[in-house]
C-alpha cells in the first residue's frame, strides 16, 4: 500500500461541504507529494510511460498541425495551453494512485477505467477545460494580431519577432499576465475537483466549489505548487516534448497525493466513495 503523507492535527480545519474538510497545508508538503508521486511511478513504470508517451505524441501532433496550417507563431501559446488540459489527461494516473493507495491490483486497463468512475461529471469538467483552452488560443491570436499589425510572423523570423523585436518585452509581459491569470483560474477549479470526481460520487459544481475553496484557503502554497508543475512541465517540453514521457506521469501521480493532502473525506456524508469498477 502506498505510504500516506502524515497530517498534523493543526492542519485540519472546519468541515466544508458535505462533511468534506479542507486542510491547512504547508510549503514543505509539496516535496512530499513529489516523492509520493515518484514512488507510484516506480511501482507502475509501464502505466506511467504509456500516459507519458501519449502526451508526447499529442504534443507532436499539435506542433505538426499548426505548422501544416501555416501558424507556427502558435507553437508557444499552444504548448502553454496544452497544460490547461493536462488535469483531464491525468484522470487515469489519479485512478492508478488511488488503487495503489487502496492496495488494489492495477493495470493500464484499470487506470483507463478511471474515466468510467464518474463519466458524466468528468466529461463536464473536460468541457470547461476545453473552453478555457479555446479562449486562450483566441487570446494568443489576438495578441499577435495587435502587436504585429495583423501580419503574423513567419517561421524564419518567429523567434526574433517574439523575443527580440521592439515590442517583444511588452508582448511577452502582456501574454504572460493574461496566460498566467487564465492558467491560475484553471488550476484553482481543477486542483481538487478532478481527483475528487475520480474518488467520490460528487457532481462537478460541488467539486469545483470545494476546489476553489481549497485554493483560497491555501493559495500561497498552491500558487507555489502550480509554479512547480509549470516548471517541470516546461522542462519536459523544452527537450522536444520527449521529457513529458516522465514529467507528465510524475506530475499526475503527485497531483493525486496533493489532493489527498489537501482534502479529508473521512467524515463525508453525501460524497460517498463510488462503487469499484473492475
What would you note in describing this structure?
Pfam families: DUF2189. It comes from Thalassospira aquimaris. InterPro entries: DUF2189. The chain is mainly alpha-helical. The protein has one domain. The protein is 68% helix and 3% strand. The chain has twelve helices and three strands, in the order ββααααααααααααβ. The protein has a three-stranded antiparallel beta sheet with strand order 1-2-3. A hairpin with a 5-residue loop joins β1 and β2. The two termini are 19 Å apart.
Task: Spell the H/E element sequence.
Answer: EEHHHHHHHHHHHHE
Total helical elements: 12
Quaternary organisation of the protein chains: single chain
Strand count, sense and barrel status of the largest sheet are:
3 strands, antiparallel
Radius of gyration: 19 Å
